[in-house]
Structure formats: C-alpha cells, structure tokens
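Lab notebook: predicted structure, single chain.

Context: the supervisor wants predicted structures on file for every construct in the current expression panel, including those that have not yet been purified. This is the next one on the list. No modifications to the sequence; it matches the entry in the shared construct table.
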Amino acid sequence: MHTVKASIIIPALNEAAYIKAVLRASTTQDFTEPYEIIVVDNGSIYGTADIARGFTNVRVISETRRGLLWAREAGRLAARGEIIVQLDADSTPPYD
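Prediction complete. Output recorded below exactly as produced.
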C-alpha cells in the first residue's frame, strides 16, 4: 500500500522564471490524499534547482542526461505515488 497517493513530476531545464509559479500552484492543491512533488533538474545553470529547493515540501533530483524523456523517466523512477502526474515547469495547474 502506498502512503503517497500521487506524485507530481516536474522536469525543469533553466526554468527559473517559471518554477515558482508552478510550485506555488502545485503545493496548494485541494487534493485531500497525501502527494509529493518532484522537480527533476535536467542540468539547469540559472538557479532553477535552488529555487525549487526553497520549497520545503518539494524534492529535487538531478538527471544529467539532457532531454525531456530522460527527466520524466528519472522522476517516475523516484516517485513513490500510486498515481503519476506529469507537469511542465512553465504551466500552472488549477487549484482543483
């Protein structure tokens, strides 16, 4: 049995301009089950990972192989949730 119902995976490569908004929206969802947020830093050089680490309930992992598919797969492998949610770093999910 999973203790985390859902894992939100956010691949990110130099998304410093957008990552705060997506993380604010992701951390304030009305989903009542336990969920985790994983940011997969795909080699950013503009502080994306540092910004994400500033959120206490966000886990940041690194994937050195560049590319969206590698980053998504690294997030999937790190996920503990029963449900996998893929979210782009420049998108903002609705509250519900």
